[in-house]
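batch job 7 of whatever, protein = TniQ family protein
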Amino acid sequence: MRSGRSRRWPLHPPPAPGEALSSWLARLAAPYDLSVRELLDHNLGPASTPAATVEQDAVDWDPPPEILEALAERTGTETAELRLMTVAGWVPWLADTLDPDQAPDAFHIYTRQDSVLLRRGEAGTNTVGRWLPWLPVDREPRRAPPRVCPVCATDPARGVALTAGLLLMLSCPDHGCLLEPEGSVRIGLVLGEPTPARPAPEPVAAVDRLTWEGLTTGTVTLPARPVHLGVWLRLLRTLIDEVSISTSRLRAASAPPPRASWTKSGRPAAARRAAASRYGARTNNCAITSKTRCPPPPPPRSAWPRPERSPPVARSGRSWPLPSIGPSTTATLRSRPQPHATTSGGN
């Protein structure tokens, strides 16, 4: 594999559904007894120059397009598909921006444009510093310590999912077990002591199955109607924000639903603060009263930036028009419209 004229690599396992780019690169390098660093620095032709500036831990974030194009030429995988193996490939569905310094505007647009348990606008305002949805901002690269399915980890061909480094899912949608720290799982496999699979609570497994459906098809099928993945992720984050608000700051009529959620879960009040901290929100919300000045409503989703790539097209039926906000790509089925929703409000 010399860095001359571009040629297809003789061995190039295809990416697994939802696999992270770094995981796929490791599987590409393994048959040649190379490290990922050696694969990037010496086997991508001219693209090896920009590849040398990318830290291996950050390859899942937003790698230079030259790297993706070089990998596409050498493996036959579409560039658009490779883009979706990175966090940047999911903007603006996963997040409106990857710049954490755009908070608090990004926080209010992402979490306050919809409502689930509370009346619209009742969540008030938050004091938010640097923030990104589903991603930590206090570490580089901005990914959480990966968590993997102990059953999936026994099959090397499955790789590691991009969601392993996101604060998005707690269970494996295929096996229904809780995700475990990747380091512990790998060590257990090396020692011949596989990490036991712990069944996930059914509510957790059900939500994660819906999230995975959205990540793989572009649409989440809910009882009332299907919604676009971007809407679903914002509804989830809105729900986390609403149950994290102190019920003493809500109207008397609005406090029972969040309070009942924690009571039914059997978790103490401290869990509310832990949830808010885990997902990057402060809990010093101000309830809306006659003396409260709240920020103006966030812009509608029609104001979202036009994305560079589109997620996989939905395969389920829809009952209302969904205008496209992004061009079709080779990673989608061109014969169908992209499932982008512009509706707001609770679902």
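notes: The mean pLDDT is 77.
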